[in-house]
Amino acid sequence: MQRYRPGHREDWELFLVEWCCFCERGHGQRGGQPQLSGEAGVCRILEAAYRLPATDPEYPAEWVSDPRQGPLCTAFVGEGEEVWPLDRDTRTLALFEGEDAA
Fold this sequence. Notes:
Structural class: alpha+beta
Shape: globular
Number of helices: 3
Oligomer: single chain
Largest sheet: 3 strands, antiparallel
Strand content: 5-15%
Helix content: 10-25%
């Protein structure tokens, strides 16, 4: 999968509505209590995506373009779910279904 960076304003809006608006990582941005985001409750992934070009090594690797699903955020955490630290390897953990990997 390739890194994804929305191109036009519409692309940003669609991506934000699909992923960021319902993600617990940005809960503080919507007036709630942040779990593991930055101090202000701003998702560091979203902040970096706004600030950096996709070619920058610090651009979020979590924003990708999947050939079958289209643009997505691999760090998405549904509303009400527990937010895990971004350094947690969720892809490997998924291989051990049923085991408590935390």
